[in-house]
Amino acid sequence: MTIVIPSYNSAATIEAAIDSALEQTIAVDVIIVDDGSKDETVSKVQQRANQNPNLKLIVQDRNQGPSAARNRAISEAKTPWIAILDADDYMHPDRLRKMLEIGAEAQLDIVADDLVRVPATPLPANGTRLWADSPIGLVRMDAARFALENLNARTGSRRELGYLKPIIRTEFLQAHKIAYNEDMRLSEDYDIYMRCLLAGAHFGVIDPCGYFSVDYPNSLSKEFASADLRRVLDRDREYLTHPGLTPEARRSITQHKMQAYKHWAWMHLIEMVRQRDLQGIGATFIAPPQIGATLVARVIRYALGKEPVPHFADREAKVQPIEKILAAS
Fold this sequence. Notes:
Structural class: alpha/beta
Radius of gyration: 20 Å
Helix content: 40-55%
Mean pLDDT: 94
Strand content: 15-25%
Order of helices and strands: EHEHEHEEHEEEEHHEHHEEHHHHEH
């Protein structure tokens, strides 16, 4: 198993990520690609690499984004499986062993465990599951189901399956020439998982085995440029041209495309207002009726002092003891 960790200015968290990777109960290689950090990330990782032959550091000469960093690491992998770990997250020591067993038994190409969100505190006792609050066993994903489970209105805010960090068969990625899309800095995970599914991947989602996604203060406040949001919309449009797409997948992807269209149009409108571009503002409203109606509704909500983009609170995650969450697996 090769654990892939992209890093960028991760000095405060990278050592915890490394420890959780090296402490796995199966043999692992760990490849960290630093994406042009300006802090002490490189020196900290290099010090650890000097002490452990299973840890390799690759330093990019400039910042190219997490997709490029992951692709660089994956290109160096020599093992049958790769695992994705973010530099500000960490794992339970027995996580990857459990996932490999299920992957082999169920003959899967991608195994994703429902991750656990935890606060940025030492040894948190409680957390929330990303997708499901109760045990799910093994849920097999196809393109239609996956697109649906990435709709805010269906899953609830920030509970989309695109956040998952799976293990993936290296041979599958190589055989289908699939890599992370390097022009994407948003929803790049959703994109690669969808392209794997469209290529015929056997994809299973299971109960949490111990991927801990850390919620840091202000981690929800990042504002993406409309260009980043536009790339998500463009990817959905590309999926809809895939030959052999089932009617169910076409309907689901179309729904996701409309969600992406709304996100892009709203941010584009904001940018045009900031630039005082009256022509650009007007052009934003030249859109399908559903998009135009959403923009008008959000403008009205903003004028009334309300949150322009409603928060989908119908499926707020249930806080549970971490021991209880992991017992499901």
